[in-house]
Input
Amino acid sequence: MKNTLTLGFLAISILSFSQNQLKELPVPNSHAVVLENSSKIATDNEYIPGPVVPRKESIKTKKAVNYDYIDLGQTYYDLQTNSSPGRRIALHADGTISAVWTTSPDAGTGYPNRGSGYNYSDGTTWYTGRDNKIESSGRTGWPSVMLLEDGSEMIIAHESNTGGFVASRNSTKGSTNFISTSAILDDVSNVNTNRVPIWNRSATSNGKVHLISNYWFSDANGVPLVTRDGVSSPTTYSRWDVSGDTADITHALLPGYDSTLFQTGGGDSYAIDVRDSIVAILLGGLGDPLSLWKSTDNGESWTYTDIDNLPFKGDRANAKLLLSGDTINTNDGSVDVMIDASGQVHAFWGLGRVMGGIASTGDTSYSFFPGQSQIRHWKEGDSESRIAGSGFDLDQNGQYDITSETLSGLDGNGNVPNNLLSATRTGATSLVTMPSASMDADGNLFVVYSAPVENQLHFLNANFRDIMVSYSTDGGETWNGPQNLTQDGTQECNFPCAAKSANDFLHVLWQQDETPGTFLQNHSASAGSHPNEINTMKYAAIPTADILANVIGNDVRTASVQENNMNEVFVVSQNQPNPFDGTSQVMIYLSSGSPVTLTISDILGNVLNQGDLGVMNAGNHTLSIDGNGLTSGIYFYTIATDNHQVTKKMQVK
Output
């Protein structure tokens, strides 16, 4: 039986996209793809390509927010995942909560002080000042948090320079004193070449830590490519015995994982969950099959399920896709997996779509279409998947209107594509992406995910993202949503992660800043399109009763500063660098020509300097702030036209 989702958005049809030049995506070990742009798109809502009947629904009125956003910590490192969210927040049985993320307290080249951020709530209060990493040394990232059976916590993060994983452990949950190991599971001792496994996903049960990871390689850094059973950079499974403090399974290939299924592994295109002696591992990837391995004996033996029956698998996938000429649905590499209380496995993924190359031109790559707006759900026993989430038609015009800036990534030279103001897509993910699932004691399922919001635009023309939620009260047979959890409209809310367990609240972690996209993947030096700015890790406890009652809705706030200045002058979220000595730059955008002034004032409001910059034409302009002669401290700069002005804070060293 085919199940549908009651959605605020049902689109009209599938549109064709113009294709740009071939480029390598900024995702390690990704396939080469051809990208495409469209200034306004309507994306499909049926899994099989074809027109669907548009349906309009009134926008639910958003209730007064009765939950707070909590600042857990800040970070300059702003890429929390390449695709799948992972296990970054945990609700414990006593109502306490632990959260982790990749953090950096500074913006130094290469982020040498990068590591695992950590915070903890006793059920009412979170710690403050949690901006530094917990590891004592090394450059780490991609943490997973786990509560061990003795009441202590273990956080496993990868050692990014040489590979392997740093296990940090406290004496009891909530303690901020962690003891970190040297790299474990580094996969060096038993081979003649240096293998570099990173990007872990870890979970624990029955005294074991179950871990999946992928191999990184880099010709530029002298890190060799690992190929096993015909798969380059394969994804492997390891198991760590907690009491023995040793590995009893080290980087094993799951049964049947070879070149008949995958050409290559992919950093973060996988997920893991455990419950008692059950382990579930879900592997995906853009253009790759969606594959489930399940163990009921703590990882000793496995059964395999082909979830999406993708016809183009393994090392011949590109050639077969090319010869077929088909456009096919796949996953975008953002996946999550959950084991419910009955032991049944649920899989979630962002919908992707690819098309074969053009044989007559010798193009053997495939095209990928990022304008997909579905989260899919499957559970054991299903013959087909169903829609579990989508974007939202906020203006109720029958289509999901998203700008090309939101759909696009930087080109092969790291530049913003022609005629665009920015390019803010995360890797090879789709518009609606990064599902993270949760379940409460009554069996209600929730999935949070990231989606751009119609008409909520940054001044560089990219849609801001918010965190959405859908829910099911019948074990996933039918889904209701989306509802917008963050509803900001002037902030980028991305990389959502929900605690696997929910009580009276859904516990959600995400990253938030003032600019769509990330500095690490979307900054163009020539365009200055994404500053290296501070990001805040946010937390909210959302009442599940509100979600189930459909009262959160989809209204979106719009800040008065952005409204007042939408047709005049816009300022990049922050001057760069900041803090600074000497000079710092600010980029502005004018939608039409206007005289512009720059004013510097101190914290008491005293004007220290004011300059008339003359009449500037429409478009982008870079202004320089001269900090010479200013003593160390906090100042404000104001950029104004005849009718409007924007003021920002800056710090002089």
In short: Residues 1-59, 558-569 have pLDDT under 50 and may be disordered.
